[in-house]
Structures are given as C-alpha cells and as structure tokens.
Amino acid sequence: MDQALNILVARLLAHRFIPRRDPLARRALIDETFRASLDHRLEECGLLLLENPYAEHIAVGLKPEMEEWVFGEGDNWLSNNMGLPRDAIALLVVVWALIILPKRERQIARAERSGDTQSDMFGAEKPIAHGEEMAPGVPEDAIYADFGKKLGGKARFSMNLGQLAKLGFVIRRNKLIHEGPLLDLMIDYARLAPRIIEGALGEVLQLSGTQIAVEPVTEDLLDAINDD
C-alpha cells in the first residue's frame, strides 16, 4: 500500500489533479483503508483531498487551519497561491457561477430522481450523472460584454482568461469557455452558491437563459476559494 500511496500523493502534487477514473483515484474513493491512509498522509503536510461526487477529477488543497501560516496575515494576506490577481479571481467566480451552478442544479435533480445519494463518506467510484450533465460552453464575448470593463478591459480580460485556462480552471475552445478539471473542485460550492443564488452578490446576469447574481469578489468571497 505504501508504494501506491506514495505514487498517488506524488502525482497529485506534481500534476495538481488526476482523473477520477484513474485506478489509484478510484481506489482512494472506494477503499476505506487506503483513503484513511491517504487522508493521514496529506494531513501530516497540512493538505486535504479535494473531491466531490459531481466532479470528474480529484485534487489536493490546503487545510483551513494552515491558511494563515501559508498566506500570511493582515496586509500581507495572499488571496491565493496561484499568482492570480484580484480581477482574475473575480473572472473565475463569474465563470464558476455560469458553468457550475446550472450544471450542479441539473445533477442534483437527476440524482434525486434516480435515488443516488452522497451518504458514502468516500464518494462514488464515478461522479454522479457521469457524462450526462456536461455543462455547455459559455461564449467569451458574452462574458466580456457584461463584465469586461469591470474586469480591466479587453487586454486584462484576455490575459486573465488565458491564465485560468493554463491553471486548469477552464478550457477555451472555439471562443467558448468550458469547465476545466479544477473548476468544480477548487471553489467551495456550499459556501459560495447560496450567496450567488440568493442575490448576495448584486446584479442579476442573464446569459443563455440562466439568471445568476454576480458582482466583483470581496475578501469574504475569496475565503470560499480553496487554494491548492
């Protein structure tokens, strides 16, 4: 087990995420003993496993109690360890709201109809609604039309979008923005979704029939982003 555990941890740290269908990833999700050893190994380093039954990948993140030690405090506090400026984080939240929220609503509805649950503490071997609830792409031009000026203009928007793609949050294809491997893992859905759905973020954006409330990111919202 030790060798398999070492390989999995090394791959997670080196690649930042691995597909859920990977044999070692599946083992971590369905083998209770292996998962306990993985959690212990990561905890010793101040890390935790990031996974949810709806995501296609797994990753590692920083334990909450380690954030102050890693990111500093007061004026020195860093919003993330990926080098993202504030306007890029704001764009990330906007994209997450447009892609993940509608997809999750469909996934939850489908899971309830089929009787799927999330009671298994290790999650399912395959993500819920695997392959059937793929989020449609969001037009880059539409997001820029609504938020471009607030996010620094065309040059900043394009640069930040490219950085999000490079980090694995999004995939850009034919002027459409698609969900990347980390988009559904690195943001705390339980904390951020209610603020968006209940209108706590301000303006209501309507795009492709989806109404979501979004505004520039605040310090409080930055806390909802899991840093790897």
Describe this structure in words.
The chain has 228 residues and is an alpha+beta fold. The chain is built from 9 helices and 8 strands. The strands form 3 sheets. It has a 3-stranded antiparallel beta sheet. A 3-stranded antiparallel beta sheet has the order 4-6-5. Strand 2 (47-50) and strand 3 (57-62) form a beta hairpin. The chain starts with a helix and ends in a 6-residue tail after the last helix. Residues 118-122, 200-219 and 224-228 have low confidence and may be disordered.
Class of secondary structure makeup: alpha+beta
DSSP E strands, number: 8
Average per-residue pLDDT, rounded, comes to: 78
Major sheet = 3 strands, antiparallel
Question: What is the molecular shape?
Answer: globular
Provide a brief overview of the structure.
With 228 residues, the chain is α+β, with helices and mostly antiparallel strands. It is 46% helix and 14% strand. It has helices spanning 2-15, 23-30, 32-44, 67-71, 86-114, 140-147, 153-167, 189-197, 219-222, and strands at residues 17-19, 47-50, 57-62, 138-139, 170-173, 176-179, 204-207, 210-213.
Main features:
disordered C terminus, alpha+beta, 9 helices, about 230 residues, globular, 3-stranded antiparallel sheet
